[in-house]
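In the design runs reported in the main text, the only information available to the sequence generator was the tokenized backbone. The following block is the verbatim input for one such run; it is reproduced so that readers can re-run the procedure and compare outputs position by position.
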């Protein structure tokens, strides 16, 4: 209890991460009727501490990352009727714990990074109608888990970093009609997987792209930007067709169709676009401009598409 000396237990929000807080301190904090937000990341409250906090009727936001919480703790937290946001990264809740949390009707945001929940845990969470934001990084989720999550109609934000969804999983996620933010870093989905998102009309943030060395080298050495395979500047075509909402040309800007492309691609695309728009401003024929787009992209089936207006 000495560990809580000096802490304002009448506050509505407390951050006590990495403070060697254990079960008794957690129980004391759970008695507060004013606390709505509590961060206890990196402590050692275990299942018993989690059970005590789950009984709180005032807490709405709780961070218990790295607290040696297992299945029993997860089951207790799933019964909370007040919690809307819960972080349980780097615990040991596994598939069973994930299934328990999936039954919560109050949670809208859940972080279960590093809990080994696997495909079955992901499937259970995908069936939740209340969750809108889900972080499932480092959880050994494969294609089947990705397919289940792609079918969710409530999820708007999803982090699947460092799982094993592969190209097939990426293509399925690209069909989601609800996701607006997605992270797929560390999933080895390749160029084919990344380009499958170009026709998605909902996503405004897609992160985790790490260009393959052979592709990056090819871009650097090719002044005409004729990228190999399926990555032939399709993002330019998508932007011009307005299949992806375009909100500017700043490199790496979220909500930009260029957000997930490597820097070398961005710079060359911007260079070409500037040239095209300057040409338009002095009256160069639009067909000539479109011819350049077709030439660089390798796409020749968009005769009816018009060039975007000058910014």
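Verbatim output:
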């Amino acid at each position: 209890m000495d560990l809580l000396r000096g802490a304002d237990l009448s506050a509505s929000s407390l951050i006590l991460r990495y403070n060697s807080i254990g079960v008794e301190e957690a129980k004391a904090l759970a008695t507060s009727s004013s606390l709505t937000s509590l961060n206890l990341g990196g402590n050692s409250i275990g299942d018993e501490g989690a059970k005590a906090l789950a009984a709180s009727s005032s807490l709405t936001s709780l961070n218990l990352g790295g607290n040696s919480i297992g299945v029993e703790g997860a089951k207790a937290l799933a019964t909370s009727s007040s919690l809307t946001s819960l972080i349980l990264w780097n615990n040991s809740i596994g598939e069973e714990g994930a299934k328990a949390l999936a039954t919560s009707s109050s949670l809208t945001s859940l972080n279960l990074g590093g809990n080994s929940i696997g495909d079955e845990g992901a499937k259970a969470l995908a069936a939740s109608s209340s969750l809108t934001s889900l972080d499932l990084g480092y959880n050994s989720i494969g294609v089947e888990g990705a397919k289940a999550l792609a079918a969710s109609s409530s999820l708007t934000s999803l982090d699947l970093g460092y799982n094993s969804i592969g190209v097939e999983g990426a293509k399925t996620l690209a069909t989601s009609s609800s996701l607006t933010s997605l992270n797929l870093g560390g999933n080895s989905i390749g160029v084919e997987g990344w380009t499958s998102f170009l026709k998605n009309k909902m996503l405004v943030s897609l992160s985790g792209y790490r260009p393959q060395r052979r592709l990056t080298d090819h871009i650097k050495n090719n002044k005409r930007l004729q990228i190999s395979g399926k990555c032939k500047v399709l993002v330019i075509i998508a932007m011009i067709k307005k299949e992806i909402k375009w909100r500017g040309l700043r490199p790496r800007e979220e909500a930009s169709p260029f957000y997930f492309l490597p820097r070398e691609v961005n710079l060359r695309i911007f260079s070409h676009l500037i040239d095209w728009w300057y040409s338009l401003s002095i009256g160069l024929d639009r067909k000539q401009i479109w011819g350049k787009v077709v030439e660089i992209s390798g796409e020749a089936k968009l005769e009816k598409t018009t060039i975007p207006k000058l910014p």
